[in-house]
Amino acid sequence: MNKFLAILIFGFLMSGCSGVMPATTGESTSQHDTGLSPKSEIPDDFIPKDIQIASIGDSLTKGVGDETKQGGYTSLLEKKLIQEKDVKSVTIQNFGVKGHKTTDLLKRLQIEEVQQGIADADIIIITIGGNDIMKIVKDNLFDLSLHVFQNEQEKYEVRLEKVLENIRNYNSDAEIVLVGLYNPFGWFIDLSTEINTIVDNWNEGSQNILSNFERTKFVMLDDVFSQSSDNLLADDEFHPNAKGYEIMSERIFETIINE
Asked: Which residue in 133, 121, 111, 154 sits closest to 50, CA to CA?
């Protein structure tokens, strides 16, 4: 056997032995030896969380139209969240007021109880804007045009941005969920098409404002309310009925749990 071959064989044997007999220095030679990788993390659902939710806004937050008197989307959302394995408890503070517009919401955000509820919240859900549109309809009933809604939309977006700024002043970390508008006038054919365009524009504008803030999400509702063959509106033909609120709660739930 020549000298070069002998060196190769010797090196091979030594490398094999080192794999069988590792040096004992008192330290793990690899992360696989103990199964405790220093990079391993505790799963999010390992320790169930207590979730605080503040719901603010108009009659949709209040649950108006729910013939079951269960409180609209909030009680349904609570039931869905509590079934998640990483959720220990759900507490929802409802600050909704029937008829509120963005102007009213800005005033309500100056109330200490509301400010504290927002400050304590992990998630803040907002329903607003429907009454802003209704006011335009009532004020311009005999002179409705897209131009009127476009002018008012700009003012609405300024107020919405102030709402979000106030919320962020009280709570910089919570996730903000803004629920989009829907067209309740599907039964009124002459008005339905134009309102569809208006609702689309206002929803798009709201999403643009929302994008200026971190940790925010938008919930689209108009597609399901405008396309469903089921009746999703209460007897007043404006607010959701129990089935409408069920769909609304499902959309909000999916938005919250999907990162």
From this structure: 121
